[in-house]
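[step 3/7] fold_predict: job queued, chain A
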Amino acid sequence: MASANPYEHYDSARVEQDVIDPDDLDINDLDDPLDDAPSAPLNPSTLTSAIPGEDRRAPTNTLDESVWETLSRDLFAVWIKLKAVLYPKFTFKKFPDATDVLSSGAGGVMREWDLWGPLLFCLALSTLLSVCAREEQKTTVFAGVFVMVWIGEAVVTAQIKLLGGHVSFFQAVSVIGYTLFPIVVCALLSAFRVYAIIRVPVYAVCFLWSLAAGVSILGGSGVVRNRVALAVFPLAIFYFALVCLCLIS
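[step 4/7] structure written:
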C-alpha cells in the first residue's frame, strides 16, 4: 500500500552522492572501478555538482499552498513597495540637489519589482475617472486613461534609459506605477464630487507627493549627474497631466 505522505522519502537521495565527481579531481582521486569500496569517499559538503536555487522536491511550494496564502503574500509584497511611496525620502522641506538624488534610491524596491501594484493603481485610476464621465463616454474614458498611463510610464522609462539609467525597463515601470497612489487619491475625490476649492490644494499636495516618491526611488537609477533635471522633468509632466485629468473630471 502506497504511503499517504508524498514527501515521506524527501530526505533520501535519489542518486548516490558520489556518482558525479567534482571537476577539480585528478586521476589519483578517482575510485578504482575494480574495487568494491571507494578509496576516497567524498565529503558531501565539498560537492560542487549541486545546482543552487529552489529545491523543486521541497514539500513547501506555491503549488501546495492555498489561494489565500498566495494572495496574502502578493499583497504583502505590494504593501512593502507602497511604503516607499507613502514615506518618500525627499519631502521637499529641503529641495535635493543632483548629488543627493543620485546618492539615494531604494535598491530593494528597484530589484524586487512587480507589476501587480502598477496594474491595480492603473485600474483604480481608470475606473474612478470613468465614473465621473457621462454614460456614453465611460468606456472611452476608461480605455483612454488606461492606455495613457502605460504609454506615459513607457516614455518616462525610455527617457531615463537614454540619460544613462542602468535600471531595467520593467523596474522603472514598476516604480512609476507605484508612485501613482497619490494620483488615485485625487481621482477618488473627483469620483465623490468634492468641491473644487477643496480638491485643488489636495491635488497640489498629491502631485508633489508622487514627484517626491518618484525622485526618491529612481534616484539611484544611474542617470548622469548633469542630466538629473532632464530625467525628472518628464516625470513631473506625466504626474501633472494625470492630476489635470482628475481636476477636469
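[step 5/7] annotate
Residues 98-248 form one domain.
The mean pLDDT is 73.
exit 0
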